[in-house]
Design a protein that fits this description.
Helix content of chain A: 40-55%
Structural class of chain B: alpha/beta
Low-confidence stretches of chain A: none
Shape of chain B: globular
Strand content of chain A: 15-25%
Low-confidence stretches of chain B: none
Number of helices of chain A: 8
Shape of chain A: globular
Distance between the termini of chain B: 32 Å
Distance between the termini of chain A: 45 Å
Radius of gyration of chain A: 17 Å
Mean pLDDT of chain A: 95
Number of strands of chain A: 9
Oligomer: heterodimer
Mean pLDDT of chain B: 93
Largest interface: A-B, 35 and 34 residues
Number of helices of chain B: 7
Strand order of the largest sheet of chain A: 3-2-1-4-5-6-9
Largest sheet of chain B: 7 strands, parallel
Amino acid sequence: MARGALVLGVGAEAGLGGALCRRFAREGLAVFAVGRTQAKLDAVAAAIRATGGGAHALAADVTSAGDMAAAFEAVEKATGAPPELVVYNAGNMAAGPLAEMTDAFFEAAWRVCAFGAFLCGREAARRMVPRGSGTLIFTGATSSLRSRPPFIAFAAAKAAERAVAHGLAREFGPNGVHVAHVIVDGVIDGELVNARAPQIKERLGADGMISIDALADTYWILHTQARSAWTLELDLRPYKEQF
Amino acid sequence: MTDTDPRDSVALVVGAGDFIGGAIAKRFAAGGYVAAVGRRKADQLAPLVHEIEAGGGRARAFALDARDEDSVEKVFASIERDVGPLEVMVYNVGANVYFPITETTSRVFRKVWEMACLGGFLCGREAARAMLPRKRGSIFFTGATASVRGGKGYAAFAAAKSGLRALAQSMARELGPENIHVAHLVIDAGVDTAWVRDRIQASGRDPAQLPPDTLMNPASVGEAYWMLHQQPSDAWTFELDLRPHRETW
């Protein structure tokens, strides 16, 4: 049976989640794409299957403990084993002025970035530790390290997610589980920004954004690192990004 | 630099000792580069050069004192003139010493800083001068736990390594827009070298009894430098850490 990869936080085909699914499928893994919108997941999975890869679409809420466990269960049921590679890629880039921010808005950012990361890490640890292997990668952002308006809710949530990742790495590395946190310190050339703010692409110019395929390559490299030299954290940005 | 054509391009490793530096040189030679290797005593480089050549790679040894401006300028000029365009420069000079603060002499403090920081500046500057007209190249610095943490007994080493990290950060911000990739690798654990095994022995433990993967394999570390050099310029890493899976930190 195929080895499984579980990618949580998949939206449009032209987003990072979709690119990760395609990259892992290309390596022969059976990919399980988890996101909120069934139609988008179906499109990602169908495109992979059309090129001969293995892909499954699972609509789920990553902030629900029940849905998170069910996603891991689905991989085990289909492949006979827990996923060898899990990516927590859910996030909402919540932005808004603090004085007008509602409680629900702040809490929603925390739920999708930090609480979901915890649920994912807990499920992954329960299933990977007994096997003594597995990779768990979290998608971080500039906001993981730096809180700046209008992204304060997002930054508070991403910093918490980073703390979850670092804690997991220290607790489960000795059990053979590789936990990594990727700090994406630039604008991703993906659906989220291109649909919401197409003027950004124009402003940044050629090569001013990070291609989703280049990002996906780095996730795969992290998964294939020898365990005698593992990376917990790395940053990624375009060559001309100011930082 | 995925579009790199390594034919006759040079990857220089400054501080090509027997372990990490040697592994980095071997990895870039395997990738098609001419591995230029430098250390103070060039005759000690002969086994590394022979090993690379025996494996079908190309290597050139240089006597290089990274603390000496004349020596650095001469070696960089000689590489560009006699070997090929410098595409990669790795600054890997180690200066790891342990002294309680009251026993740290100004001579030790200054010498450690010269090796770990000043030499990085001299080699980084010469690499930038060579690479800027071509608008391509990678400049990588080997960091350590002490780059981000001043541990007990490591005042001289940590001060110097923090300085090297700051140098790397400034260079990354200045040279990134010129398409030159500057990165800093935080090696946060012992690498499997004779020196580290001696230190373990000295601390009263038997290095032969270490559990597997307690120390990092130099080849695994070399692979990380190679991977950074392969990154396309729309997704570059400035800093990454490396440690074995069972390391606690």
